[in-house]
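Write out a record, focusing on structure:
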Amino acid sequence: MGSKFRNKLIKLFTDHNTEIKGAAADFIFVLCKENVDRLIKYTGYGNAAGLLASRGLLAGGKGSKAYSDTDTDSDTEEYRENIDKINPVTGHIPPVLPNPVDSMSDEQKEYMAVQLATQISKLSSNEVIQPVCVDPNTGKLVSFQQKVHETVLPEEKDSDDSD
């Protein structure tokens, strides 16, 4: 999370003591002028879900009290700069992780792809999972195996026959 007071209050949303959890959530909700969208913006949907569910506001809306509309735009400059990076569920910016594939050679990537295909094949043959794809004609999901059986490959022309 962060070291700001707001972050410490939001961390209390997951406290095991329900009184502390409720008090912190209510406090932040009042600071957000009981505006659901503003609460979600500052805390993340996952953190706000408990409070919103207890008040019947999971679908959005406003609380029962009226607040002044003098400061309707509560976006800080920092928020506006980072809005695309903020995770809407947790309400914080996740750390940038390096791509593990970048350090692999092409042979390692190919080996990992074969391993993945083998594992998917095993799960599929044991009927643990059923791979599907979108049928371009209907737009619905169809079994990948069914799609493979329906696929007609164009006939290849043999270059030796032309002589």
